[in-house]
Specification:
alpha+beta; D-Maltodextrin-Binding Protein, domain 2; Dipeptide-binding Protein, domain 3; four-stranded antiparallel β-sheet; 17 helices; 28% helix
Length: 559
């Protein structure tokens, strides 16, 4: 088993504080990247139709079991959605480029407020209903209604920021209107959360749709059934002919059926893979070096790709009177943490080292590695200058008060204890405090911490808004405490510059400036890059990751 037990990968959303708390010690596997591009196996063999693919996931979400595209945040289920529900656009995993899919083309108005999509003719849902402009307009209405019905907790709410409605121009042309420019919106139309489904589903309650009831897409597969915490099955549909250009197989799926099961123990999943009982082991934790050797020794492979979006990142409580309100102490923290040793010790020798607020597969990624370099002597000088002197116990103190950083965790494990040891070298006492279930839901809101952590998976840097911009953040308490008011205004201004424009060069520069600012001002403390790994049977061909590091099944076949 991995040194760190992964608890889940919920991006901050509904019950955001609880999610942040759970992230506390979880090493949410998933997105960091040793393999660039789309990943996956390649060979020249002729694809063979037929057969069943068996995939084992981490256990289902106990708190929010859901398969409805607009509502779900669970990464495993977004992988399933990607294969039965198509989107207006697609995103190239290698370049981040947005390409046509259900929409053959689009136009963005000069003011950035209107997105007019021309739809491909002949597209149908698996029930035979046609996908046309009215369907898209009705879906938009359904998205907005779902946001209202769930008080904004539906995960798709973060993708439709500023969207006010849609207008049918003609049977194959639909115009989506925003209240303000949002440069992230086009990318949002490529995601699973904005997948186009038969709008009849929106006549049902959100809770019913979570069970899969009424959820019908236009993808290569059909959602056969979803039995929460047990299995999900998708089956091949016939007549599929509208894949994006990012896949080789433009027609029907090769596979007849895909069964996804939920298995808690990494060792059981690995054993099932090496014995041939399953075809893909899709874990939460990165696969340990020992398990990777077992997989490869049995003739199978391990596929890897960074999950895009916000890296697994610590955030400081900068409230006046807390130790990390001092910018010198925050800068010392960067120099005191050996990120390379952390990655190697916790995940293995070849694990990538995080180099900034975002994982490396995120569009507009700008590495800040030099600012995160390990320099314990430099950390000591900064702490000396800030007036923190080393005492006989090896820890620093000032005005009779020891330099203690309160770090709430949900369980003790290798990661936090390693951090604790690294900070002790420079005289900082990282106090690990195990949270009670009640505290996990309140400690961020109450400000009862010095360091906490979270992340957000999306192939667009605008995802960080939902952590740091208090106007839209899922936890306003976290956003407001992570930076001073003046720095928060700078962050908001850079997000505005990046998003409220149609100038790609301006967006790129604004995000580069943002990433530099976050480190220069001690706002984000990246801890590790999140990497999605999968053990794949030698009998599986055409394995590929999407831009969000989900599994795309279009080209997958079994020998």
């Amino acid at each position: 088993m991995s040194m760190l037990r992964r608890l889940g990968r919920p991006a901050p959303h509904r019950k955001a504080v609880a999610a942040i708390a759970l992230a506390g010690l979880a090493v949410l596997a998933g997105c960091g990247g040793s393999s660039g591009g789309s990943g996956g196996s390649t060979d020249d063999a002729t694809p063979k139709a037929g057969g069943e693919l068996k995939v084992s996931f981490f256990p289902d979400n106990a708190n929010f079991s859901c398969i409805d595209p607009f509502q779900v945040y669970w990464i495993e289920h977004r992988t399933i959605v990607r294969n039965f529900a198509d989107s207006l656009t697609d995103q190239d995993p290698d370049t981040g480029e947005i390409v046509p899919w259900l929409a053959s083309k689009w136009e963005i108005s000069p003011d950035g407020l209107n997105y007019t999509f021309t739809l491909r003719d002949g597209v149908t849902f698996s029930n035979g209903n046609k996908v046309d402009a009215q369907v898209v307009a009705d879906d938009v209405k359904g998205w907005l209604a779902t946001v209202a019905a769930t008080n904004g907790t539906a995960y798709g709410a973060s993708y439709i920021q500023g969207l006010t409605g849609a207008t049918v121009v003609d049977p194959l042309t639909v115009k989506l209107t925003l209240s303000q420019p949002n440069a992230s919106f086009l990318q949002a139309t490529s995601t699973t959360n904005l997948a186009i489904t038969d709008p009849a589903e929106y006549q049902l309650l959100p809770a019913d749709r979570c069970t899969g009831k009424g959820v019908i897409g236009s993808g290569q597969f059909v959602l056969d059934h979803y039995t929460a915490k047990v299995e999900t099955v998708i089956t091949k549909r016939t007549g599929y002919a509208w894949a994006s250009k990012l896949v080789k197989n433009q027609g029907d799926a090769y596979l007849e059926k895909v069964t996804f099961t939920y298995v808690a123990e990494d060792s059981v999943r690995i054993g099932n893979l090496t014995s041939g009982a399953i075809d893909v082991s899709w874990p939460r934790n990165p696969i340990t070096p020992q398990d990777e050797k077992l997989i490869e020794a049995s003739g199978q492979t391990v596929e890897k790709r960074a999950l895009p979006g916000v890296s697994y990142t610590q955030f400081a409580n900068t409230t006046e009177g807390r130790p990390l309100s001092d910018p010198q102490v925050r800068q010392a923290l960067y120099k005191a943490v050996d990120l390379k040793t952390y990655a190697k010790t916790v995940f293995g020798d070849d694990y990538p080292v995080v180099a900034g607020p975002f994982d490396s597969t995120t569009p507009f990624y700008s590495a800040q590695a030099s600012k995160l370099a390990y320099d314990p002597d430099g950390a000591k000088k900064l702490l000396d200058a800030a007036g923190w002197k080393v005492g006989s116990d090896g820890f620093r103190a000032k005005d009779g008060k020891q330099l203690v950083l309160d770090y709430p965790v949900t369980q003790f494990s290798a990661g936090p204890e390693l951090l604790q040891a690294q900070l002790k070298v420079v005289g900082i006492n990282l106090a690990l405090r195990t949270l009670t279930p009640a505290q996990t839901a309140t400690y961020v809101k109450d400000g009862d911490y010095d360091l906490t952590q979270t992340y957000f998976t999306r192939a667009d840097p605008g995802a960080l808004q939902f952590i740091l911009n208090p106007d839209v953040a899922n936890s306003k308490a976290l956003a407001n405490r992570s930076a001073t008011p003046a720095v928060t205004e700078q962050i908001k201004a850079l997000f505005k510059k990046a998003i409220q424009t149609t100038d790609a060069a301006q967006t790129k520069q604004a995000y580069a400036d943002l990433q530099a600012l976050l480190i220069d001002q001690g706002v984000t403390f990246p801890l590790f890059e999140r990497v999605q790994e999968a053990g794949v049977s030698k009998d599986v061909h055409g394995f590929a990751f999407t831009s969000e590091s989900f599994l795309r099944l279009n080209d997958v076949w079994k020998s």
